[in-house]
Design a protein that fits this description.
The protein is an alpha/beta fold. The protein has 17 helices and 19 strands. Helix 1 packs antiparallel against helix 7 and helix 8 runs parallel beside helix 12. The chain starts with a strand and ends in a 13-residue tail after the last strand.
């Protein structure tokens, strides 16, 4: 089985050793409730306070608040709710309130939807405006300067999760100097990659997520500048000094605190020069693998850990399948929407061509990834390029020779076979024919598959209907289908059912969920 090369760190990261050990220690030895007054509770409170102090120092928060949350989405909602509650208070007191809520065109949907939700829920009736970006993905500062007098809340990113584009926060701050507008900065992708000294900035709110930088999932943080308005979103228990009720996720906070401590010491992550060297190696490997490849954002304006690219003539689905077959794990744009066929709203906002938006791949490595890992990833990318270059133009792939059918039944027979059921199935059906419906280039980039019944038969889904029409004997023997994720094998299975096949199964989850010992 191909060893995975994880290049999707903007989506999530593994727990680093320090974060894992701190979380386990919190579960085992500091399991008390931080609100309890006995010794176990006091030890838990000490750990909570230590983690918060580490966060304040690492972020340069000064007298600003650092409130632990369940993640960046909650932190964003807390910030937006606080800002809009303050705007409603000002309005009720007869103070002037600007009519616009200004959100950057490339913001994460959590920000946009939070602004829409609380504007509606609080019945403010403010106008949501989208601040455009230029072709490099940076905010239009000229338009921002023009619109600021009408703006009550401004929401921008520190760095974009899809493209890695770094916002010109200094330029934005200069324009906000005399503005009463409140300012939220989604800082999730900036942590550990960009210098942060929040107390020296005009930023009112900044959101962070633990699992994006080697801490556990389920923990985040909201920074609130000293003096900026804050209203609790969750009340009821008085935790977090009354700012966020609910018993604290102490293992997650301890893990996040360990990351902040390592950031403060400078002992965890690779330095900027190393990250730049890693990016240069990956850029060269991508150009070697896919001549004609284009990057969707200028590298000089991007985080060194993020590469967003497209290959002319290749869809994101084709590239994802090819890379995944070779063990390279990436995303088609944002991980939150990687399963959708539509183009990227971020790239569309930048004015990228439709083919580049729909065919985008995001490759993101982590600041903990070693030079050895990067070298292995580069070698795998070049192997994929060689496979792609040898790939024969197959008109059937584009036109889907023959039409796949779907059974005209209200209730379709159960066709999903789970991996733990595979051994029993093959003992019951020793003559089952294993058919791999991945495209040929995926199979070449991956590895040969076989079962106790023999090697897998390669029949790409693009030609499956035509193949079935030429092989009527398929209807007389058990068939087991598989692909990368289980989606295409399910289509093929339904086609066989529509033809009247009495015994067809497909491996649910495909090769992505294959145990190491299965189909060896």
């Amino acid at each position: 089985m191909t060893a995975p090369l994880y290049l999707d760190s903007n989506a999530t990261t593994r727990c680093c050793d320090a974060a894992r050990d701190a979380a386990l220690q919190a579960m085992e030895a500091s399991f008390g409730n931080p609100s309890s007054s006995h010794s176990e509770g006091l030890r838990a409170r000490q750990l909570l306070d230590r983690s918060r102090s580490a966060a304040q120092r690492a972020l340069g928060a000064g007298e600003g608040r650092c409130i632990f949350t369940s993640g960046a989405t909650e932190a964003i909602h807390m910030a937006v709710f606080s800002a809009l509650t303050e705007l409603r208070r000002r309005r009720e007191m007869g103070e002037p309130v600007a009519p616009w809520l200004l959100v950057g065109a490339t913001e994460h949907k959590a920000v946009l939807q939070a602004v829409e939700h609380w504007n509606h829920t609080l019945q403010l009736g403010l106008r949501l405006r989208i601040l455009p970006v230029d072709a490099s993905g940076r905010h239009d500062l000229g338009l921002l300067q023009k619109w600021l007098p009408q703006t009550a809340l401004l929401c921008t990113m520190a760095a974009n999760n899809e493209t890695g584009v770094i916002s010109d926060l200094a330029g934005i701050e200069a324009l906000l100097h005399d503005s009463p507008a409140l300012w939220l900065v989604d800082s999730v992708q900036a942590l550990g990659k960009l210098p942060l000294a929040l107390k020296q900035t005009r930023i009112d709110y900044a959101s962070f997520s633990g699992h994006k930088l080697y801490a556990p999932k389920g923990v985040g943080l909201l920074y609130v500048r000293a003096g900026s308005p804050f209203t609790p979103l969750i009340v009821g228990g008085g935790q977090e000094a009354g700012q966020r009720s609910g018993t604290e996720n102490l293992p997650g906070i301890a893990g996040f605190g360990a990351v902040f401590e390592a950031l403060e010491r400078g002992s965890l992550l690779a330095d900027a020069a190393t990250l730049q060297t890693h990016r240069e190696a990956l850029v060269q490997a991508l150009h070697d693998a896919f001549p004609g490849l284009v990057f969707n954002a200028p590298l000089e304006h991007c985080l060194p850990t993020t590469l967003n690219f497209a290959v002319p003539g290749a869809s994101s689905k084709q590239l994802m399948n090819l890379l995944d077959a070779a063990g390279i794990q990436v995303s088609a744009g944002s991980a939150c929407s990687a399963g959708k066929a539509a183009g990227s709203p971020v790239l569309d906002a930048m004015g990228r061509p439709d083919w580049a938006s729909r065919g985008a791949i995001r490759l993101s490595f982590g600041p903990l990834d070693s030079s050895t890992f990067i070298a292995a990833a580069c070698a795998a990318l070049r192997r994929c390029g060689a496979v792609w270059a040898r790939r024969q133009a197959d008109s059937a792939e584009a036109s889907h020779a023959g039409t796949l059918l779907t059974p005209s039944l209200d209730i379709q027979p159960a066709i999903d076979l789970h991996w733990h059921e595979l051994g029993g199935y093959l003992r019951r059906q020793p003559d089952a024919l294993l058919i791999d419906v991945r495209e040929a280039y995926e199979q070449e980039a991956g590895e040969a598959l076989s079962s106790p019944a023999g090697p897998a038969l390669s029949v790409p889904l693009s030609g499956f209907a035509q193949f079935c029409a030429s092989r009527p004997e398929l209807l007389r023997q058990p068939v087991l289908l598989l692909c990368r994720s289980g989606n295409r094998s399910r289509e093929a299975a339904l086609h066989l059912l529509a033809l009247g096949h009495p015994e067809v199964r497909q491996l649910a989850g495909g090769l992505a969920l294959r145990p190491a010992e299965a189909l060896a």
